[in-house]
Design a protein that fits this description.
elongated, signal, alpha+beta, single chain, Immunoglobulin-like, 6 helices, Barwin-like endoglucanases
């Protein structure tokens, strides 16, 4: 059977890394992740609207729980709410898509990368098989420069969309501790994951044990654990699309405080 150029490149890369015995939790290129990051984009059709202010981030964080970070770098208001088919009960929070509009004279036809941060529960988000309710900023970014308002006035647009890898530059994964957390209960929002963006699982290891305790997805990007815990805490992430693991060692320190965001030194890409 013939091996494609892409598969040859992946095989050579895997062989060149083999002698170094790099553990999967610190670095890994699964075939799925390689494909998501490198292969040609596969476009599908969807509908699109926008909400919130024309130059805003839609809502203040939305159903995924990211809060006001959606209006700040690296999200920078290029975010979207999606209908039930993509939101999938919050399991797609953090996933990235490229969108580009068509069928309107103000469309630039250039793709814009957005992150799922919110849920759209009604209207065309439900009646259409796939629908993006974009922030005003993201919707306007699909327009020819100077024609953003003309595009926003179009109402419902026909767009093309494609799943792509998230990439936030030099930003590392962050963990926002919910204000209601205490020594017997902790809830965190996971932010800025490169690559897949969405998560299949989150586990926590405290200072009293070498075992990992699985956290429960409470809603959106928020994960919780009911247990007596001793800091510092390490966090193990498992990405949903590729199944890759990533460990943030001792990322939540002794003396941690509810309502605080703790930045790690790691990311997937």
């Amino acid at each position: 059977m013939a091996i494609s150029t892409l598969h040859k490149a992946f095989l050579l890369l895997s062989l060149s890394l083999a002698p170094f015995c790099i553990p999967k939790t610190s670095f890994a290129l699964s075939m799925k992740q390689f494909i998501l990051s490198r292969t040609a984009i596969q476009w599908s059709s969807a509908g699109a609207t926008w909400y919130g202010s024309p130059y805003g981030a839609g809502s203040d964080g939305g159903a995924c729980g990211y809060g006001n970070t959606v209006s700040q770098a690296p999200y920078s208001s290029r975010v979207t709410a999606v209908g039930p088919s993509l939101y999938n009960s919050g399991r797609k929070c953090g996933a990235c898509y490229q969108v580009k509009c068509r069928g309107h004279r103000s469309c630039s036809h250039k793709p814009v990368r957005v992150t799922i941060t919110d849920f759209c529960p009604g209207g065309p988000c439900v009646s259409e098989s796939v629908h993006f309710d974009l922030s005003g900023t993201a919707f306007g970014a699909m327009a020819i420069r100077g024609q953003e308002n003309q595009l926003r006035n179009a109402g419902v647009l026909s767009i093309q969309f494609a799943r792509v890898a998230c990439y936030y530059g030099r930003t590392t994964v962050a963990f926002h501790v919910d204000p209601a957390s205490n020594p017997y209960y902790i809830s965190i929002v996971v932010e800025f994951e490169d690559g897949d963006g969405d998560l299949a699982g989150v586990s926590l290891q405290d200072a009293s044990s070498t075992n990992w305790q699985a956290m429960q997805q409470s809603w959106g990007a928020e994960w919780k654990l009911d247990a007596k815990l001793w800091a510092p805490f390490s966090i193990l992430l498992t990405s949903k699309y590729s199944g890759r693991n990533l460990v943030a060692r001792n990322v939540i320190p002794a003396g941690w405080k509810p309502g605080t965001t703790y930045r790690s030194f790691v990311n997937y890409l």
